[in-house]
Design goal:
By secondary structure, the chain is mainly alpha-helical. The chain folds into six domains: 7-226, Tetratricopeptide repeat domain (Serine Threonine Protein Phosphatase 5, Tetratricopeptide repeat, Alpha Horseshoe), CATH 1.25.40.10; 255-401, P-loop containing nucleotide triphosphate hydrolases (Rossmann fold, 3-Layer(aba) Sandwich); 410-481, no CATH class; 493-566, Winged helix-like DNA-binding domain superfamily/Winged helix DNA-binding domain (Arc Repressor Mutant, subunit A, Orthogonal Bundle); 741-820, Serine Threonine Protein Phosphatase 5, Tetratricopeptide repeat (Alpha Horseshoe); 822-1048, Alpha Horseshoe (Serine Threonine Protein Phosphatase 5, Tetratricopeptide repeat). Helices cover 65% and strands 5% of the residues. The strands form five sheets. A five-stranded parallel sheet has the order 7-8-9-6-10, with helices on both faces. A three-stranded antiparallel sheet has the order 3-5-4. Strands 1-2 form a two-stranded antiparallel sheet. Helix 17 (426-435) runs parallel beside helix 19 (458-467), helix 40 runs parallel beside helix 42 (902-918) and helix 41 (882-899) runs antiparallel to helix 42 (902-918). The two termini are 41 Å apart. 52% of the residues are buried. This is SARP family transcriptional regulator. Residues 1-86 bind DNA.
Amino acid sequence: MLGPVELSADGRLVDAGRPRQRVVLAALLADAGRLVSSEALIDRVWAEAPPQGARRALHAHLSRIRGLLEGSAPLVYRSGGYLLDVDPDRVDLHRFRRLVANGGGAGDLRDALRLWRGEPMAGLTGEWVVRTRQAWVRERLDATIAWADNELSIGNAEVTVGPLTDLAAEHPLLEPLVAVLLRALHAAGRSATALSQYAALRERLADELGAEPSASVEAVHRTILRGDAAVTGSGRPPKAMRTLPAAAAGFVGRHDELRRLLAAAGGARTVVIHAVDGMAGVGKTTFAIHAAHHLAAHFPDGQQFVDLRAHSPARATVGPAEALAVLLEADGVAAAQVPLGLDGRAGLWRERTAGRRILLVLDDAADAAHVSPLLPSAPGSLVLVTSRRKLATLPGATLTTLNTLPAADAARLFTHRAGPRAEHDAAAVRRIVDLCGNLPLAVALTAARLHTHPTWTVADLAADLDRAHDRLGALVSGQLAVAAAFDLSYHGLPADRRRLFRRLALHPGPDLDAHAAAALDDTTAAQARRGLEELLESNLLTEPRRGRYCFHELVAEHARVHAATDPDRDAAVDRLLSYYQHAATTAADGSDAVADVQDAADWFTVEHANLAAAVLHAADRDHPAAIAIPAALKGYLRNRGPWDVAIRLHHTAVISARRVGDRSAEAHALTNLADVQRQVSDPAATATAERAHTIHEQLGDRRGQAAALNVLARARKAAGDVPAAIATAERAYALHQDLGDRHGQAADLYLIATSQIATSAFPAAVANIGLADTLYRQLGDRRGQAVALGTLAWAQYMTVDFSASAANAEHARRLHRQIGNRPGEAHALTILARVRRATGDCARAAEAAELALALYEELRDPHGQATALEVLARAHHAAGDYPAALAVAERAYALCRRSAVRHGEAEAAAILGAVQHARGDHRAAAAALDSALTIFRHVGNLDGEAEVLNHLGRLHLDTAASAAAHRTFTAALGIARRIGSTSLEANAVEGIGTYLIHTGRFDAGTRHLRDALAIYRRIHSPNATRVEEILSSCGPRQGNPVVGADSSGCGERHASS
């Protein structure tokens, strides 16, 4: 990062990809160990003008990065973002920051600066890159200044002059840098050069900024003029008052916040006000003091600290008048000369600070009015204010909200505070900081407990905290307690806000909006919104996204303690569940769920986690929402997943319906459950659908029977019993016809068609797809149209109509994207990838497969992931990238084996065998191909059987098993002609021709090769080029053409997935 963005493994550089991919990698590494939202990544890569396909392109980059980092640094997807789980010390940027933050010893700073290899992120472009590069360069400058200070303090002036001179030439107006250069030159006996540098700075400041040098530069200048001994300090005026408390030892984290603060303060020409807010215990005071010590050298005329005590449990708040008296006396004003009134004191304070550059820390302010009278008047001064409230009304203030620490920083804080016992049990430390919610106060107090129990291990402490029924009560040390800090914030609220705070703790989901809050508090959405905003300003809530609010885990626990005594708690929960039930049902019906939601799918996307939590909560209370919400969510979950959540919700609905004796609801829930089980290749799907059908039949519900039969047919097809699937779908179709249900008829026709494709009955499949598409168009069902188009594209691919297949796959993809059907979009991408591979465009085939893989990973669909990996492996194999093809094929095979997806296992084994053959591992190739052949024959996939037979024929030729080669090629040819697969026919004819030439029958062999060439040309296969080269390189009796492992080309087969 501190140079070109590079990866290294075992001392070797690894190609990090093209520039755009390296920007994605840099965006992740900049926040290593922390979650980065997809939106933030898109903004960092494409800034304000992301292309239409930005999200898909991002997923492709992330998939490739995941492959680069596999085995060394997992790239994890979590709730809308990505986390690169890497030790920060393995990233030069974060190692640099840690060394600088260690306290700034000369050795640490020297090691930190050695990590720089040139311009950060060299060679990359973009708004985020430029902005971030500038910030990192400023960090380097600050570290260089600190390093030079340390070297000067121990008499090493000469080593600093060169680096400082070079940097000052690049940054001639950075006064702290020039000041330390002047001191270094003076200390090295080069005072004349120092005076020349000062004159150049003064002239440049006057010309470009209309300003004079700062007091610290002037102080160094005066020292040089007097000829005093070389200064090793910063040249501060001797009477400046310094009342900063000592900086906390072992300060960790807060790099971004500190960097922004330092950048805003350095070289400022006006009063800079930086207001730091955050929840109780988040470390505001520690951060402000740490920052103040970093900045002290920039403010030579004084650094003062005042504790305003707005949230002190034992001492009265320090008002503005009292605070001004403290400041004036610390600045040398005798107590008797301090004016009596607030206005008089404020005026004297402004008078005394005029013309001076001071740093003022005002800790624990109640609000903006508390600190306004204390602000100095001098341009170039800095005021740091900390408060539990957001001081948005403080004029000119820059606001910084401190959140809890990232897990890695929290672990480092605990280890530092706990001592050596914490250094050897990283898992226990991670558990402790997780139970502390990464809140610095909680982490520090828990570490302190370890000191009071010298016989405890860190694991003992983790277990004790894990078992605690009252976790807040366990987070205490001496007179300090997390609960006490929270109580001060809670009791400072008005009564109605305390009530809202309590009731928000009853919400079971991860976040909520004003409508859910209104249901809990029995008020209007507008009233609830005002209350939420006030709690947000008090840092008792956070707003992770616009209009979405949530608690920190420990604050939530504190709120639950108070909620336990609320007499309205049960009624509040019932109101919330009823709200979610009504909103989900109306959204599923196509009407607006709430007043400010325009699209039901958008509302489900925002609320799906809350709805899932509400279902589980409702089930415990026998509330009807446990049945109604999963039913309303079925379409959304089918289209977008994640399917493990869908299974849990539909299973909960089944259990709830049984408990209340609602058999109809149970049957519908079983149908929904079976549909999702089928999507994830769960063998239980068949039994679940059969049970649903039985109940519907017993109840006389013909519509329910038809729906259950459709799902049962899908489950049987997924299990490999294609004839039974077709028969079951035909029964469903007959029922839907009797009922006049055109939607149901279309779905059944689509299912029959896909089953026919699996048995290579392509003409019948195309006819049924056409009937289904007609029905979907009549109904205006865009999702149905998209699905039908995708299936038609698949059939066209299988019958080698590549142009039509590509066009329909693209059209299907666009439709799926417009309606938010991510499984459909992923399926269309896999078809597109296969078509591109078949027509020789292997690079774009791999790109489409990677996009499909990213979608399937988000859906947590193992079967889909395996399919995308299989297609990706074929693209790599066709392009001749055998190592990549092998790695991807092995991943696909392992996924299918784990998921018991027999058909997918055969597909993965087929490409795995082809790749192993290409690599020369004939024994492994034969085993994989034999396995694939067995499965294809078992499930009745003739297309797959023919493909594997062609592969085995080529393998037999390469291992001199000519007779076996002839048998397998002949068998493949018979199947290919029976199912009408011209591409597989050409592969087989080519193989027979090669066999004939190998066995000395040259004329017959070349006739077969010419027949194969004619077919390849007719279907526009890139294999035609290879056969042409073989024929042209092999004149009469010149020898045998060699067609072995590499003969498969980009378009050898078009198989179902």
